[in-house]
Write a structure and sequence with these properties.
By secondary structure, the protein is of the alpha+beta class. The protein is 24% helix and 24% strand. The chain has helices spanning 18-26, 39-51, 61-75, 88-101, 118-124, 155-159, 174-184, 191-204, 256-263, 332-338, 366-374, 486-492, 495-501, 546-550; strands spanning 4-10, 31-34, 78-81, 109-112, 142-147, 164-167, 232-236, 242-246, 273-274, 279-281, 286-289, 294-298, 301-303, 311-315, 319-328, 353-363, 380-381, 391-392, 404-408, 410-413, 416-419, 432-435, 463-470, 473-480, 510-515, 520-525. The longest helix is centred in the first third of the chain and has 15 residues, at 61-75.
């Protein structure tokens, strides 16, 4: 049996369509996955469905399908997508309408339902994950409750040989894991094998982020053809071995750095990545750069899946709508230009975060207006060539985001749903972990002394970084550009020093994970995002600019 070729057609709701068309035509794919759903987008989709029961699915569904359906049907490529959002059934009918419009001879569409658990959480007054409250505390403002289903929910649709599988809320990597399970016959309790498949899904789910789209720092980490970066694909073997690559002739880069950054992106404990299908263990992953934009991934594994499924709650909390494309930190102007966005004249825009922004005030409630007046934190200065100013303000004032969001965990129990909160932090397995409050780091986390004869001054000279959000927690990975510099990273980046660097931004503990085989140090920063992306009043609600900020850390004391 040859490798199964699976590609990423989108990594978020507004992603570009052209790279997906290229994959559909030239990728010789078995499956093409469009991952377009996030916590905020499903809450907004629920609002659209409330306004019009025929809506609530992804607004770009028809455009994406018009672009790729002919090539996919011709080549036998299965399309899998969560563009059903809050209304998968309506999305399925919209897909059939596109097929009729294109005069396609056949299109077998399967719609996966079951993620909408709003009635259940209201009836059972489910407890919330991020507070001591329950659903009743939302006081009639609850809009949606969507459980993150696993790959098992998609298997019947794939067994029926659907050309297009449309889902609502499904765990992102499960969209990729399901066709691998179906094709290779992987058992639903073969945890090590499912862990390998989980790694494939996690590497692909953000599309161009693993092929260089989030990596560029011109003159330091160059990404050729950033404005036409290609979307990735994976060549997966029956034993879970995989090569990540992209199409020849497309922009971007697939290498050790791009794959490491994506592998750790928005993961908390790398040895216990809790997902609907398996508890993934990435602590022993090894990446082999094969050259030619090809990276082999080995060493992923897994353990039994959690007993609970995560639920994303959306509730009405007042909002100001804001859309932006931001470039933060040193090199921001060059990255913006490389992506095809002309840089603004110097001095016109605020500091180290450049943005193309559209701001539409709609409504904020009284509580939020008071919170915005009360809140505020110190700015974090960013220095270095290419920065357009002097401060990136991680302030908890600036906008009210909504609908609000929260979470609950329904438990799998013989077909019945129960809900309760859990705490799960894994341990061990080839790396070191140390909370900021917890003593010395067993992996050598003492402070580093002043360097005597090196020209390097700040972390940016030897590393790249990547940050993301996980509820009210921020994740941050720092990766050595040259593996020879990893011991310095391990000594320099203690949990205490990172916590001190982000004083005024991070309100809770900082956990540290050292991954020598990836030449990376990984952090989870608690109480760092002012409640999380759907509720935060922070200027950077996703925590994406934290990675630019940490690179300003001095290499000596």
């Amino acid at each position: 049996m040859g490798p199964y070729r699976i590609g990423a057609g989108a990594g978020y709701a507004g992603d570009r369509i052209d790279p997906a068309v290229d994959l559909a035509r030239r990728g010789q794919l078995d499956a093409l996955v469009f991952e377009c759903l996030a916590e905020r987008t499903i809450a907004l989709a629920q609002l659209r469905r409330r306004a019009d029961p025929a809506q609530g699915f992804d607004p770009l569904l028809a455009a994406r399908l018009r672009a790729v359906l002919p090539a996919c049907l011709q080549q036998g490529t299965t399309i899998i997508t969560n563009m059903g959002a809050a209304n998968p059934l309506a999305a399925g009918h919209a897909a059939l309408a596109v097929a009729r419009e294109l005069q396609l001879q056949r299109l077998r569409v399967a719609v996966v339902l079951g993620d909408d658990v709003l009635d259940w959480v209201q009836k059972n007054d489910a407890p919330l994950l991020d507070s001591a409250d329950t659903v009743r505390s939302l006081d009639g403002r609850l809009i949606s409750a969507n459980a993150y289903l696993g790959a098992d929910a998609l298997l019947p649709a794939l067994a029926a040989k659907a050309d297009l599988v449309v889902t609502g809320r499904v765990a992102d990597p499960s969209l990729f894991l399901a066709p691998l399970m179906q094709h290779f016959g992987w058992a639903a309790d073969d945890w090590p094998l499912l862990g390998k498949g989980l790694a494939v899904g996690h590497l692909l789910e953000c599309a161009a982020q693993v092929s260089g789209g989030y990596l560029a720092d011109p003159g330091r980490v160059d990404v050729p053809g950033l404005h036409r970066v290609g979307f990735p694909l994976a060549e997966v073997e029956a034993d879970g071995g995989v090569v990540i690559t992209k199409l020849p002739g497309t922009g971007g880069r697939v290498d050790r750095l791009s794959c490491t950054a994506q592998l750790l992106y928005e993961v908390e404990d790398p040895a216990a990545y809790l997902q609907a299908d398996v508890t993934g263990d990435f602590s022993q992953v090894r990446l082999t750069d094969l050259g030619g934009d090809r990276v082999r991934v080995d060493g992923a594994s897994g353990r039994a899946r959690p007993d609970q499924l995560k639920v994303s709650l959306g509730y009405s909390d007042g909002f100001i709508g804001e859309g932006q494309i931001s470039y933060a930190g040193p090199g921001a102007r060059a990255r913006r230009a490389g992506a095809g966005h002309p840089a603004p004249p110097p001095g016109r825009h605020g500091a180290a975060a450049l943005a193309r922004r559209v701001r539409t005030p709609r409504r904020t409630d009284r509580r939020q207006r008071h919170a915005r007046r009360r809140a505020g934190h110190r700015p974090r200065a960013l220095r270095g060539a290419g920065a357009t100013g002097r401060a990136l303000r991680h302030a908890r004032a600036g906008r009210a985001r909504g609908p609000g969001g929260g979470g609950a965990l329904p438990q799998r129990a013989g077909g019945r749903w129960r809900c309760h909160t859990v705490g799960a932090r894994g341990g061990g397995g080839g790396f070191h972990a140390d909370p900021a409050r917890g003593g010395a780091d067993p992996g050598g986390g003492a402070g580093v002394g002043r360097m005597s004869n090196a020209p390097r001054r700040i972390l940016r000279d030897i590393a790249l970084a990547r940050s993301g959000d996980k509820g009210n927690r921020a994740t941050l990975s720092v990766i050595a550009l040259d593996p020879a510099d990893f011991p310095l990273l391990e000594r320099l980046l203690t949990a205490e020093r990172v916590q001190a660097f982000f004083a005024g931004v991070v309100g809770g503990e900082v956990q540290r994970f050292v991954l020598p085989q990836l030449h990376a140090v990984h952090f989870v920063m608690h109480d760092a995002l002012a409640g999380g992306v759907t509720r935060s009043l922070a200027l950077d609600a996703h925590g994406k600019t934290l990675s630019a900020a940490i690179l300003d850390l001095p290499l000596d004391d």
